[in-house]
């Protein structure tokens, strides 16, 4: 690390600790030539996760889109905000644990559908009807029939 005062390359770390929000490391440094002290912050650089949509376009992963879909499907249902947050966290954790740079929306959608199926069957059918693009009432009846068999 170069000294900001004299541009010397030789500096030493005096103190190192996590920054206030634990997202970076704060290092206190001292220049070997001029003796002045300064602070640097090291932050992990991450590549953004890209989501591949049905039409092949790509966009940056956005947690709020998952949240909006789940909230809409759970509207006026006996599902607490803690349960919704837990489902969103679970889906997000599974997506990031895949360690892929790109994830298809179909993969994320199936994770949400599986989580909603366990959480609330009505919310599941609501989400599935939009996600799987139900075309008519028979599609709804078929999906409900599958739920009743279980």
Instruction: Compute the number of helices.
Output: 5
Would you identify the regions where 5 or more consecutive residues have pLDDT less than 50? none
Helix content: 40-55%
Share of β-strand residues = 15-25%
Mean pLDDT: 89
Let me know the number of strands. 6
End-to-end distance: 62 Å
Determine the structural class based on helices, strands and strand pairing. alpha+beta
Main beta-sheet strand count, sense and barrel state: 3 strands, antiparallel
Following the backbone from N to C, one meets helices and strands in this order, namely EEEEEHHEHHH
CA-based gyration radius: 24 Å
Number of domains: 2
User: Order of strands in the sheet with the most strands?
Assistant: 1-2-3
- Outline type: elongated
Give the structure's gist in a few sentences.
The chain has helices at 63-73, 81-97, 105-119, 121-131, 137-149; strands spanning 11-18, 24-31, 37-43, 50-52, 58-60, 102-104. With 150 residues, the chain is of the alpha+beta class. The model has no long low-confidence stretch (mean pLDDT 89).
Descriptive terms for the model:
three-stranded mixed beta sheet, alpha+beta, 150 residues, three-stranded antiparallel beta sheet, elongated
Structure description:
This protein is an alpha+beta fold and 150 residues long. The protein has 2 domains: 11-43; 50-149. The protein is 45% helix and 21% strand. The protein has 5 helices and 6 strands, in the order E-E-E-E-E-H-H-E-H-H-H. The chain has helices at residues 63-73, 81-97, 105-119, 121-131, 137-149, and strands spanning 11-18, 24-31, 37-43, 50-52, 58-60, 102-104. It has a 3-stranded antiparallel beta sheet with strand order 1-2-3, with no helix packed on it. Helix 1 (63-73) packs across helix 2, helix 2 (81-97) packs antiparallel against helix 3 and helix 3 packs antiparallel against helix 4 (121-131). It is elongated and about 80 Å long. The model has no long low-confidence stretch (mean pLDDT 89).
């Amino acid at each position: 690390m170069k000294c900001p005062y004299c541009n010397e390359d030789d500096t030493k770390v005096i103190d190192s600790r996590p920054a206030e929000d634990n997202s970076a490391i704060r290092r206190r440094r001292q220049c070997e030539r001029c003796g002045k002290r300064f602070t640097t912050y090291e932050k992990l650089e991450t590549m953004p996760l890209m989501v591949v949509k049905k039409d092949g376009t790509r966009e940056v992963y956005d947690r709020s889109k998952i949240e909006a879909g789940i909230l809409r499907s759970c509207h006026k249902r006996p599902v607490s905000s803690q349960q919704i947050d837990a489902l969103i966290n679970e889906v997000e954790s599974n997506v990031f644990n895949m360690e892929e740079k790109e994830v298809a929306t179909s993969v994320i959608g199936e994770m949400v559908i599986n989580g909603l199926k366990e959480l609330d069957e009505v919310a599941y059918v609501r989400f599935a009807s939009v996600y799987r693009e139900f075309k008519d009432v028979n599609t709804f009846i078929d999906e409900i029939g599958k739920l009743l068999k279980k």
